[in-house]
């Protein structure tokens, strides 16, 4: 590639954003791309599964030592030579978490990190519960050329995605980043897929891919690895590889049409009504397992 692709992946906390970002990075590295992943979440755990479950020093923690920061202190090699960076956050109870992202990105730019390391793709893994301050920087400053959001069919995930759309719409006229698609995560039921599709239709957005919930992810993360590394022949690894290829080929960049609060409320209520009488699609084996666990808990064992 002749030009670095800067891609921001947003999503509410706990939605699987970092899991998705890391598996995309791992899949892209397999496909021959030189990848850098920058964790823009104060939890600083974005790159853990790219480094065997280990935490790396964050930019903000390193800056707090009040000495000259060497680049190799904040840029670390991970799986398949993926470059791993964590912005970090303030000390507990002090400062603004979003400010860490601003400081980190400014430092990386001022020290010519991108020019020196020459990544083909930079993945920004950004907390998407709020789109303000530093969390909005990849969008507001147009640092990311394309923005994706990881969302399930749950309302709070949809709500966070809708807020992200508002941020993109606000900054689009002044050169902000544009949207490229929803990554629908933890989608195992037809009704879940229908909910996300309908939200996408109502906001004028597209769906990059549906990603099922899988125990392959749980097993891999218990080992501190991505699915691509820990279970490369699994169906879930195939899903992530396909998603990575889709993202690289995708050239869609557009302004979403977020729903207003009352519209979102009405939309949610319609789906709530349609779910009345719906049964969870749980296999008989899983249901028996749940019942056995409940019986064990009830007996005090």
UniProtKB/TrEMBL annotation:
Question: Which reactions are catalysed by this chain?
Answer: N2 + 8 reduced [2Fe-2S]-[ferredoxin] + 16 ATP + 16 H2O = H2 + 8 oxidized [2Fe-2S]-[ferredoxin] + 2 NH4(+) + 16 ADP + 16 phosphate + 6 H(+)
Top-rank taxon, per record: Archaea
**Per UniProt, where does ATP bind?**
11-18
Pfam families for this protein: Fer4_NifH (PF00142)
What CDD domains does the database record attribute to this sequence?
NifH
What InterPro entries does the annotation carry? NifH/chlL_CS, NifH/frxC, Nitrogenase_Fe_NifH, P-loop_NTPase
Entry EC number(s): 1.18.6.1
Keywords for this protein: 4Fe-4S, ADP-ribosylation, ATP-binding, Iron, Iron-sulfur, Metal-binding, Nitrogen fixation, Nucleotide-binding, Oxidoreductase
Q: Which family does it belong to?
A: Belongs to the NifH/BchL/ChlL family.
Subunit description = Homodimer.
Record protein name field: Nitrogenase iron protein
Tell me the organism. Methanosarcina mazei (Methanosarcina frisia)
């Amino acid at each position: 590639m002749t030009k670095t692709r800067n891609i921001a992946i947003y999503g509410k906390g706990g939605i699987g954003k970092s899991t998705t970002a890391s598996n995309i990075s791992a899949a892209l590295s397999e496909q021959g791309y030189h990848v850098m992943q920058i964790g823009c979440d104060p939890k600083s755990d974005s790159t853990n599964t790219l480094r065997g479950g280990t935490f790396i020093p964050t930019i903000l923690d390193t800056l707090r030592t009040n000495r000259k920061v060497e680049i190799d202190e904040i840029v670390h090699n991970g799986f398949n030579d993926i470059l791993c960076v964590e912005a970090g956050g303030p000390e507990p109870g002090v400062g603004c978490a979003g400010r860490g992202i601003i400081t980190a990105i400014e430092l990386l730019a001022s020290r010519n990190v991108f020019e020196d390391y020459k990544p083909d793709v930079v993945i920004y893994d950004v907390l998407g519960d709020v789109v303000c301050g530093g969390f909005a920087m990849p969008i507001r400053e147009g640092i990311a050329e394309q923005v994706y959001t990881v969302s399930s069919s749950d309302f709070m995930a949809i709500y966070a995605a809708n807020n992200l759309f508002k941020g993109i719409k606000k900054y689009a006229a002044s050169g902000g980043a544009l949207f490229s698609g929803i990554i629908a995560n933890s989608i195992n039921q037809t009704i879940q897929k229908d909910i996300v599709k309908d939200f996408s239709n109502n906001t004028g957005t597209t769906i990059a891919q549906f990603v099922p919930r899988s125990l392959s992810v749980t097993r891999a993360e218990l080992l501190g690895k991505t699915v691509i590394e820990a279970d490369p022949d699994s169906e879930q690894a195939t899903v992530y590889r396909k998603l990575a290829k889709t993202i690289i080929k995708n050239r869609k960049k557009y302004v979403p049409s977020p729903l207003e609060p009352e519209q979102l409320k009405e939309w949610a209520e319609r789906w709530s009504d349609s779910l009345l009488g719906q049964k969870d699609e749980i296999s008989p084996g899983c249901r028996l397992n749940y019942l056995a666990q409940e019986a064990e808990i009830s007996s005090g064992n």
